[in-house]
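re: the backbone from monday

yeah here it is again, tokenized this time
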């Protein structure tokens, strides 16, 4: 049977934020150490994978760590993984290419109509 111990903080309930570990001291007294919550690493907004190169910390801790632990030097550094950024770049390029193709096809149709009108007016 576990020894009875009292919490060291004001919260008397066994909740997620009040996890404790029983520790036996040098004087054979059992005390409790409060355990902090486990941190989860930030995830990519598009793919949902953990972002490589960024430390997994509790949200408030990010304010006190240097910038190099919070981000990577790339566009969308601390928010998207490299694969997601690559997909966005490719998608943007293809959208631009599609716009150019549409414009060229439209110009060809206009030229064809103009040539048709010329032929009809000659006859």
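seq for it, each position gets an aa:
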């Amino acid at each position: 049977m576990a020894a009875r111990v009292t919490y060291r903080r004001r919260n008397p309930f066994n909740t997620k934020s009040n996890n404790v570990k029983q520790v036996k001291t040098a004087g054979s007294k059992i005390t409790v150490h409060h355990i902090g919550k486990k941190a989860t690493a930030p995830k990519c907004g598009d793919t949902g994978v953990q972002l490589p190169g960024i430390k997994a910390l509790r949200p408030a801790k990010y304010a006190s760590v240097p910038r190099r632990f919070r981000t990577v030097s790339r566009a969308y550094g601390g928010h998207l993984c490299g694969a997601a950024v690559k997909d966005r770049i490719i998608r943007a390029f293809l959208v631009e290419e599609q716009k150019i193709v549409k414009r060229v096809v439209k110009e060809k149709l206009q030229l064809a109509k103009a040539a048709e009108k010329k032929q009809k007016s000659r006859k």
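The mean pLDDT is 92. The longest strand covers residues 20-24.
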